[in-house]
Amino acid sequence: GTVTDEALLEERRDTLLMAVARGRSGYGLAWADLAGGRFLCCEIADEDALAAELARLEPAELLVPDEDGWPQPALARSGVRRRPPWLFDADSARRQLLRFFGLQDLSAFGIEELPAAVAACGALLGYVEETQKQRLPHLTAIAVESTAETIAMNAATRRHLELDTRVDGKTRHTLLGVLDATVMPMGGRLLRRWLHRPLRDRRTLEERHHAVAALVESRAGDDLRERFRGIGDVERILTRVALRSARPRDLSTLRDGLRALPELRDLLAPLDSPRLDALSRELGEHAATCELLSSAVAPTPPALLRDGGAIAEGFDAELDELRRLSTHADQFLVDLERREREATGVTTLKVGYNRVHGYYIELGKAQAAKAPTHYTRRQTLTNAERYITEELKAFEDKVLSARERALARERGLYEELLDSLAAVLEALKRAAQALAELDVLCAFAERAEALDWSRPELSEHPVLRIERGRHPVVEAVRDEPFEPNDLDLDDARRMLVITGPNMGGKSTY
Hints:
Elements: E1 17-23, E2 26-33, E3 38-44, H1 47-57, E4 61-65, H2 72-75, E5 80-83, H3 90-101, H4 115-132, E6 143-144, H5 155-161, H6 175-179, H7 185-196, H8 202-218, H9 220-228, H10 234-242, H11 248-268, H12 274-283, H13 287-296, H14 317-327, H15 329-344, E7 350-354, E8 358-364, E9 376-380, E10 384-388, H16 390-423, H17 425-450, E11 464-469, H18 472-477, E12 485-489
Parallel strand pairs: 1-4, 3-6, 4-5
Antiparallel strand pairs: 1-2, 2-3, 7-8, 8-10, 9-10, 11-12
């Protein structure tokens, strides 16, 4: 639950660390996506709600107090870690959170009156600090999730709906499999979160529907999706930037993503959608950051900083000189040998290198008398004398340490670059979140057009009316056309009893 290395993470699924604390009338839950920089919490009423949340979030690691009486859903899973009960003390947790976020109280997060959630947050944060052993600047706030905002689903309902995993454990032919036309990994992760937490807020839903309709009608969704293909997993890259574990290719990917933003905003500008307008603004202006990365990061950097070549040529004069010395030493020696032969008149003069004595100018015994006065004897051989000059000594001092000094200089410049990115991290995170949502909305638009889906009309009244409805998953699986169904339920007719033979289509009506 605490890993942030790209190679150890599932690209399109959140890897969550969760802590659960007992409260007076229920449980407090806290969970963090360290790779994405999200920290959330909530309070729930009972064991059934706990089982439902565990089924929804599927944490990779679960922290619980090491005490008796814990419900089976919390323990009958992999990744459970029992921790000393005192780590879940609400008062201690509150002090820990105030220290970590530099606050006087927790009212800004809305958790001041949620002691069980505070206890869980403190236990989680303590575990992260203990295992990471470094600052966590990408965790800047705690968000509270309210169960009143979403449609409640218990664990059994979620399992049988087969949102992203079938009852047999396979992931093909699920609702996510049909819907996921996202291009970017962070869009895929957001779509999964949306499916597992269906909203009840009509305004938010209608804003999304309006955005999808605008994308379909304008055909801008296709153009946006094409631009998304050049954008990497910015969300997780920014976490590695904050943790100072970003590799050179992370920064080149970030650079390429920022370069795409102006064109994305241009494509969004003519669309009539409040939500798309808001997302366009959240993408932000990052011209200075993009220019910095473009000038500082090599066009095709190495995988690791220690390999050298991460910083672009022309960004730093000192680094360029060190690299020149390191890569062009042979040419310098050829030029020096030619000049010294001309100056001394000794055509057999040689310039060479010895690991023990370093660089030298060699004259045969017969020509040693022609050595200029500025030659200093370095080594005497049976048939030759070797000399050093001030020019050659200065070159030697530079070139022998040039690579090490170049790598050290590059490390220093790279750290300064990470400092500069850290200063604008919050704005970049907002841009990443906007990109993820745009990706999901464009995926919905693509699916709606490709599968001939209609925009629903939402009502405050208890009514469900479907004309010529088609089950999206069954239709995707079957080779033959799906037979559309009508459905009409309202306050007067709240239930229908469907009968028929086995395999007759009752469950997919």
